[in-house]
């Protein structure tokens, strides 16, 4: 069974037990797909017994530090432990161009025997295919944040289940398309618009789009207890609600 491994659950201010929002998607073929890297996730992968060498696809949703700030450390780490397996990095032009510029600022072209990386620039429009393999069919939708940002809609090709991930967005038409009838909706709950959504708005979207379950992520943790967000969401949504926590693993 495919699974989702939550590596971080916090919004842009993290703490010791809630890292920036990023997660892994692991299908039956065993190749983990990483969604965002606000922190270098390699230590967590080792702790969880997940083979980082098998991770060949990285999706970067947008160029904000809490989503991509860990990429240079992750790539350096992989290089230093001797990775030779190639890697594909997917994202919008806005994000990928800046990632390449950042790596050039670190002179990565002078890092000897660096493993092969290919950058896949996604067009900024609805339903752009990111990947289509034996396990998953994954498409992106531009959502409404402060910089060009994608949300994801992922079909598990082995069992037909569908996962929506809002990423960082205020309520918008695209997020309803992402959430439409999904089995699982992972939705941010960072706070009021612009650029973000409250738990109440996430719940409203889950309810109106017929999502079968709601997972709240990317929520504030600094000097605030996030637990009441579940009750807040339950006022607007009838289905099961989970507050994502770091190291949670969900079957998909
Ligand atoms: Zn964010």
TrEMBL record:
Keyword annotations from UniProtKB, A to Z: Endonuclease, Hydrolase, Nuclease
Pfam families recorded: Lactamase_B_2
Gene3D superfamilies given in the database record: Ribonuclease Z/Hydroxyacylglutathione hydrolase-like
UniProt KW Hydrolase keyword: yes
GO molecular function: 3'-tRNA processing endoribonuclease activity
UniProt-listed InterPro entries: Metallo-B-lactamas, RibonucZ/Hydroxyglut_hydro
Domain (Metallo-beta-lactamase): residue spans on this chain: 20-196
PANTHER family: ZINC PHOSPHODIESTERASE ELAC PROTEIN 1
Protein name listed in UniProt: MBL fold metallo-hydrolase
Lineage, opening ranks: Bacteria, Bacillati, Chloroflexota, Candidatus Thermofontia, Phototrophicales
């Amino acid at each position: 069974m495919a699974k989702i491994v939550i590596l971080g659950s916090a919004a842009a201010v993290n703490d010791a037990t809630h890292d920036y929002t990023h997660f892994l998607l692991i299908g039956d073929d065993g190749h983990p797909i990483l969604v965002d890297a606000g922190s270098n996730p390699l230590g967590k992968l080792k702790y969880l017994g997940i083979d980082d060498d098998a991770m060949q696809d990285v999706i970067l949703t947008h160029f904000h530090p809490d989503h991509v700030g860990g990429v240079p450390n992750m790539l350096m780490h992989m290089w230093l432990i001797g990775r030779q397996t190639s890697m594909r990095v997917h994202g919008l032009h806005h994000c990928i161009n800046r990632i390449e510029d950042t790596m050039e600022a670190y002179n990565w072209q002078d890092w000897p025997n660096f493993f092969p990386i290919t950058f896949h620039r996604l067009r900024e429009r609805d339903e752009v295919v990111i990947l289509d393999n034996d396990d998953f069919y994954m498409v992106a939708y531009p959502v409404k944040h402060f910089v060009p940002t994608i949300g994801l809609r992922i079909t598990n090709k082995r069992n037909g289940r569908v996962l929506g991930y809002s990423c960082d967005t205020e309520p918008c038409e695209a997020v309803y398309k992402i959430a439409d009838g999904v089995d699982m909706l992972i939705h941010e709950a960072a706070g009021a618009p612009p650029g973000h959504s409250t738990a109440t708005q996430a719940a409203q979207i889950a309810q109106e789009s017929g999502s079968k379950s709601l997972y709240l992520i990317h929520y504030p943790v600094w000097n605030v207890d996030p637990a009441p967000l579940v009750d807040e969401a339950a006022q607007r949504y009838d289905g099961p609600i989970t507050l994502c926590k770091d190291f949670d693993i969900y079957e998909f």
